[in-house]
Amino acid sequence: MNCGDDIVLGGLHISPDLDTVIYCLAGELDPESGWGLRNESWHALETLRRLGGQSWFALGDRDLGTHLYRTQRLAEGAPLSVVTAELGTRWGAEVRLLPVTDDRLRTRLTIDPPAEGAAGAAETEVSFQEYFVKLRHAVAVRSVRFVGAERARPAPGVLRAVSAAGAVVIAPSNPIVSIGPILAVPEVRRAVTQRREHTVAISPIVAGAALRGPAGRLMAELGHEASVVGVARLYAPVASALVVHSEDAPLAAAVEAEGMRCIVTPAIMHTPDDAAALARATLAAAGLQTPPSQ
Amino acid sequence: MNCGDDIVLGGLHISPDLDTVIYCLAGELDPESGWGLRNESWHALETLRRLGGQSWFALGDRDLGTHLYRTQRLAEGAPLSVVTAELGTRWGAEVRLLPVTDDRLRTRLTIDPPAEGAAGAAETEVSFQEYFVKLRHAVAVRSVRFVGAERARPAPGVLRAVSAAGAVVIAPSNPIVSIGPILAVPEVRRAVTQRREHTVAISPIVAGAALRGPAGRLMAELGHEASVVGVARLYAPVASALVVHSEDAPLAAAVEAEGMRCIVTPAIMHTPDDAAALARATLAAAGLQTPPSQ
């Protein structure tokens, strides 16, 4: 999993991607927003805002318990992968969650100066959370880099998980800033590439745009085509198949021209049944048998 | 004010003494416990406890807003004195609050190993909060030191506040661990000593014991007499008068033998009127006229 989004805010080590997955798998994710905890209270953040502090990052009261726990354990010397496993277990997420690395890896984006910036202000580099939350990804991105990725070692268990898996699935997440940091760790990219025949990606782009978030805009700004074909170009080195939504059937041949098999299937997940059907289609594309629909 | 109690917990910079005074002067102190905020909620701490984190230090949700603010501002490079002034203003404490220093100063206590420690465990050194909160001051203290005090410079305004004040009042706080860190900063001790004639201390010891907290026990363990006479010996170098409670009238001569004037007056503050009367007696002892009782 991606930990390039991690940020230290007010002294707390926050891992937004890891937390969202933990809360989701534990059944604690807020269904309205898609992040944070359900039934959350906001007393700490309201106080911080009233005091004039930086309150652009939403810190719920119960969520703060997670951040305090992680920060304490990291300060004690526990690696992020160990802390993530502890948090997963204690929140009740019954799946093994592995951050790509225990080393420091940070996604940094060079952006055009915000409109309200001083005239003539130079381009500036920000963290992922500043881009995504503080600036609401309403700025043009010129480049992205993953600081520390070249030297990062895979967290314990990551390489084995990739090599031993029946299939490796690249979720329909942002290829640049969510999957990118994972594949930027050289040994991980190599391990996934070695499993290319059993690696399937699901396109986050449907009919030329991301279903949510800035993936489409970001791909275009960085010189990629914001289409399933652009996605195929990014993933062809590491995955042998791309799952695309039915609407993109006309582009299947162009995807295959990039060197990937193209699986056309309903790929928009409105309901758990949609998600289950997509998972079955994806695993079948990787050559795995799956139990029939319930 | 004392900042030797400060602690970093889960990444957050916490200044318990400063916060208690700010909350008290802002009318926000919890009247039951005497610390923390009134009408506090505890969602973050309950979550941290449930996750198995270190939860011995009580972090209320709104209180976390204060700690997040302080930690953010310190990380931005603001000195503790500036942050304290900001917090005082924003919480509504209408008095100028000055930490003794912006430099790092930490109270450390060498204690006997706790009873549950391994047999033969050596004595151990802990922070003030570990001693006071985690161990509930139920351990024997062998020595106290103020790490960083010798090199600490007074925070901006501290020396001027002492030199310009009509009177310097040493509150009935713990002489060793609450007043001690302040007077351990050499320039501050020198400045108070120069104002000795206008410096008055109020004894925290009444009839041989502290009204609350471990001051009596701590004085005895460190070789001081746990009485107003023991307090007089500690304060005689810096203060010219000691206010003692009526019950200690028989010891007035012994206090004066230590070189301090002894003011005998009701010194237990049950009500705001008690506190006002004590303040008037104290300022009168420093040679200040005060307005008559309302």
- Name the assembly state: homodimer
- Give a short account of the largest sheet of chain A: 4 strands, parallel
Given the C-alpha coordinates, what overall shape of chain A results?
globular
How much of the sequence lies in strands of chain A comes to 5-15%
Greatest contact between two chains:
A-B, 37 and 37 residues
Average pLDDT, all residues of chain A: 93
Structural class of chain A, please?
alpha/beta
What is the rounded Rg of chain A?
Answer: 19 Å
Low-confidence stretches of chain A: none
Number of strands of chain A: 11
Describe this structure in words.
The structure is a homodimer of 294-residue chains. Chain A has 294 residues and is an alpha/beta fold. In chain A, 38% of the residues lie in helices and 15% in strands. Chain A is built from 12 helices and 11 strands. Chain A has helices spanning 16-25, 43-50, 61-75, 80-91, 128-134, 158-164, 175-183, 186-194, 215-221, 228-235, 252-257, 272-285, and strands at residues 7-9, 12-14, 106-111, 124-127, 141-147, 168-170, 199-202, 205-206, 209-210, 241-245, 261-265. In chain A, the strands form 4 sheets. Chain A has a 4-stranded parallel sheet with strand order 6-7-10-11, sandwiched between helices. Chain A has a 3-stranded antiparallel sheet with strand order 4-3-5. Chain A is globular, with a radius of gyration of 19 Å. Chain A starts with 6 loop residues before the first strand and ends in a 9-residue tail after the last helix. Chain A binds chain B through residues 8-13, 41, 43-54, 59, 61-69, 71-73, 75, 86-87, 90-91, and chain B through 8-13, 41, 43-54, 59, 61-69, 71-73, 75, 86-87, 90-91.
